[in-house]
C-alpha cells in the first residue's frame, strides 16, 4: 500500500501513517494470519492440596469397535498423583450411563472430587451431568480452546495410552479392550519425570509388586501415627516435584511466547476455531474469518486474565452471556456412524446474512430455552 501511494502522493510521516492504518484496520484484524510468537505466557494450574481432589477427564474416540461394542476410552487422571483410570465406553452412552460408570469406577475407589477439569464435549456440558455434580458439590471447570495447559495432563496420558494400544493391536488385533487393565496397571506403576516416582508410589507410598520385583518388594514397615506422617511427607515431596516440573515447563514454553496483557476499556479480537463444514459469517472452510470482534474489556476477573467482554456497536451492547439467539433453519450432517443435527443461528447485533451453522446439541447445552417448546 505504501509503494502504491508513493507513486502519486507524499506527506510527512507517510510510511508510519500507512502502517498505523493497516494495523488498526478492522477487516485486516479479522482475516490476516498471525506470524508472531503466541501471545500470553504459560499459566499452569495450581498444584492440588490432596490426592483425588482435582481430576481431569477426556475421551479417546475413533477407535475400532470391539466385540463388546466399545469404540472409545474414558480417561480419568488425578492431577496430583497422576494416577489414571481407563474406562472402555461407547460414544452413544447417555449421561445417566456415564454417571453410573463414574460412581462405580471413580467415586467408590477415591471418593468425590472437589473439581473436575474437562473440555466442552457434549457429555460434560449436558444438563444431567451438571445437575449430578451440583448434588455432589463438585465444581466443573471447562478448558477453553487455545489454552491447552489447563488439560494438558490428560492429553499427554491419551498419547501414552494410544501408543500402548497401537503396539497391542499389531500383535493381537482390534480387541483393544482386553489390554486396558494391563495398560492402566503399567502406566500407573511406571516412573513419571514430574513426580520423580510412579503414580502408584505417590498414591500408596510404594510401588506395586511386579514380576520383576517379587523377590525384592522393598516394603517399608510403618506403624501407628508414623503412617500419617509418612503420607504427609510423601505428599509434600510430590507437591514440590510438581512445582519444580511446572516451573521448568513454564521456562521452556515462555521462550517461544510473548507476554501480553490488557487493561479495562481495551478492545480485543477473539480467535475462533475453524470447524469443518461449518459456516461462520457467511463463509465456510478456509475463507471463514480467523477472528471475531472487536470486543471491549469491561473488567478483569483476575490479575492475569480479562475474560469479560462486550460487543462494540449495535443498539444494546449486551454482554456475551446474554446474547440473543434466533434459529433460522435446520439440517443434518451424515457421518460414518451417526447423524449430526445442525442449526443456522442468527446472533444478536448481526444480520441474517451473518448467520452461522452450529451443532444442535451444543446449542441445547448453552441455550436450553430455545428448545423449551
Automatic annotation (TrEMBL):
Origin organism lineage: Eukaryota, Viridiplantae, Streptophyta, Embryophyta, Tracheophyta
GO biological process, one term: DNA integration
Domain named Integrase catalytic: residues: 44-207
One Pfam family hit: rve
Protein's recorded name: Integrase catalytic domain-containing protein
SUPFAM superfamilies hit by this protein: Ribonuclease H-like (SSF53098)
Molecular function terms from GO: nucleic acid binding
InterPro entries: Integrase_cat-core (IPR001584), Integrase_H2C2 (IPR041588), RNaseH-like_sf (IPR012337), RNaseH_sf (IPR036397), SH3_Tf2-1 (IPR056924)
Amino acid at each position: 500500500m505504501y509503494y502504491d501511494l508513493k507513486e502519486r502522493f507524499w506527506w510527512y510521516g507517510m510510511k508510519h501513517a500507512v502502517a498505523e492504518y493497516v494495523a488498526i484496520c478492522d477487516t485486516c484484524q479479522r482475516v490476516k494470519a498471525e506470524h508472531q510468537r503466541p501471545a500470553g505466557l504459560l499459566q499452569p494450574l495450581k498444584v492440588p492440596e490432596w490426592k483425588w481432589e482435582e481430576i481431569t477427564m477426556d475421551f479417546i474416540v475413533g477407535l475400532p469397535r470391539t466385540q463388546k461394542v466399545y469404540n472409545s476410552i474414558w480417561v480419568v487422571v488425578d492431577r496430583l498423583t497422576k494416577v489414571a483410570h481407563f474406562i472402555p465406553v461407547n460414544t452413544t452412552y447417555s449421561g445417566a450411563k456415564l454417571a453410573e460408570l463414574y460412581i462405580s469406577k471413580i467415586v467408590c475407589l477415591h471418593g468425590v472430587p472437589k473439581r473436575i477439569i474437562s473440555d466442552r464435549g457434549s457429555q460434560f456440558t449436558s444438563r444431567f451431568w451438571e445437575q449430578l455434580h451440583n448434588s455432589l458439590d463438585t465444581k466443573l471447570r471447562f478448558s477453553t480452546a487455545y489454552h491447552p495447559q489447563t488439560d494438558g495432563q490428560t492429553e499427554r496420558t491419551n498419547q501414552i495410552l494410544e501408543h500402548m494400544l497401537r503396539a497391542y493391536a499389531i500383535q493381537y488385533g482390534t480387541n483393544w479392550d482386553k489390554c486396558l487393565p494391563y495398560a492402566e496397571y503399567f502406566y500407573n506403576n511406571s516412573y513419571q519425570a514430574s513426580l520423580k516416582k510412579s503414580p502408584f508410589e505417590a498414591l500408596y507410598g510404594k510401588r506395586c509388586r511386579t514380576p520383576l520385583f517379587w523377590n525384592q518388594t522393598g516394603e517399608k514397615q510403618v506403624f501407628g501415627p508414623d503412617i500419617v506422617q509418612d503420607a504427609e511427607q510423601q505428599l509434600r515431596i510430590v507437591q514440590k516435584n510438581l512445582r519444580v516440573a511446572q516451573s521448568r515447563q513454564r521456562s521452556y514454553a515462555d521462550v517461544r511466547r510473548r507476554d501480553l496483557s490488557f487493561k479495562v476499556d481495551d478492545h480485543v479480537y477473539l480467535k475462533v476455531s475453524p470447524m469443518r463444514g461449518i459456516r461462520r459469517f457467511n463463509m465456510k472452510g478456509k475463507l471463514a474469518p480467523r477472528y471475531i470482534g472487536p470486543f471491549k474489556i469491561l473488567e478483569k476477573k483476575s490479575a492475569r486474565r480479562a475474560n469479560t467482554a462486550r460487543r462494540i456497536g449495535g443498539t444494546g451492547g449486551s454482554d456475551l452471556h446474554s446474547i440473543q439467539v434466533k434459529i433460522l433453519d435446520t439440517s443434518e450432517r451424515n457421518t460414518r456412524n451417526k447423524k449430526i443435527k445442525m442449526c443456522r443461528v442468527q446472533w444478536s447485533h448481526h444480520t441474517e446474512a451473518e448467520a452461522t451453522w452450529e451443532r444442535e446439541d451444543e446449542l441445547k447445552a448453552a441455550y436450553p430455552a430455545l428448545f423449551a417448546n
